[in-house]
Design goal:
The protein is α+β, with helices and mostly antiparallel strands and 216 residues long. The protein has a single domain, classed as Nuclear Transport Factor 2, Chain: A, CATH 3.10.450.710. The chain contains 7 helices and 5 strands; from the N terminus they run H-H-H-H-H-E-E-E-E-E-H-H. Strands 1-2-3-4-5 form a 5-stranded antiparallel β-sheet. Helix 4 crosses helix 5 and helix 4 packs across helix 6. The longest helix is centred in the C-terminal third of the chain and has 23 residues.
Length: 216
């Protein structure tokens, strides 16, 4: 479990808003991903943060902004909720995106110390129906090689990541399974009550993670 958490952290940190044609993109999907990953690595390796606990919050904030610059949280949120997303109001969609983004940040950025200069190999780029792409990579650790697949969508001339698949496990599918077990669309009454439950659970989880004591 700990191993999967660290691998997930590294993949998300090294990856972590919907029309344009492929020709309009300023960078290819692989180039876009590589540049985004490098911007995150630069923050992780910045000497001003190394070994300075008081700088951890500042470093996490900078990493968060770098990830947001090339990660499509709106597309990720829509896909994790699935069909019920169509029944969400605009305000509810915005609220969900904010909460889900916060959940991912608290879940993975809290383990930022798990990064130890792992390398990334960019192996293959595949364009799917012009507006979607997949970039196959490998995370090269000191003990193993972990396949990581990034899925991107072309929005306003830029490719942004909307899903990460680590050792065959999709981030989107993983959370969609969890959320589909909460939301019930069999009737309007059940949808409203279970939707409220979903938001309540997300808020509680974010609160728990936010207030979780830091490891010494």
């Amino acid at each position: 479990m700990k191993r999967l958490a660290i691998i997930s952290l590294l993949a998300l940190l090294l990856c972590f808003v919907a029309t344009a044609s492929f020709a309009a993109a300023t960078q290819s999907p692989k180039e876009r991903l590589r540049a985004g990953i490098q911007s995150v690595i630069d923050v992780l390796n910045n000497p001003q943060y190394k070994g300075i606990p008081s700088k951890k919050i500042e470093q996490e904030s900078e990493v968060r902004e770098k990830i947001k610059s090339f990660f499509n949280f709106r597309e990720l949120s829509k896909r994790t909720v699935g069909r019920p997303w169509l029944k969400f109001s605009t305000a509810e969609r915005d609220r969900f995106i904010a909460l889900f983004t916060e959940l991912l940040e608290y879940t993975y950025l809290g383990r930022i110390e798990g990064y130890t200069n792992e390398k990334i190999s960019f192996d293959k780029e595949t364009i799917i129906k012009e507006k979607y792409a997949q970039v196959d990579t490998r995370l090269l650790t000191s003990k193993e090689i972990v396949p990581v697949i990034y899925r991107l969508k072309l929005v306003d001339g830029e490719w942004n990541v909307y899903d990460v698949k680590i050792e065959g496990i999709s981030l989107v599918n993983n959370y969609r399974t969890q959320f589909s077990g909460i939301i019930d669309t069999s009737s309007d009454a059940k949808f409203e009550s279970t939707k409220k439950e979903l938001f309540d659970r997300l808020e509680q989880k974010c609160s728990d993670l936010k207030n979780k004591p830091a490891k010494k």
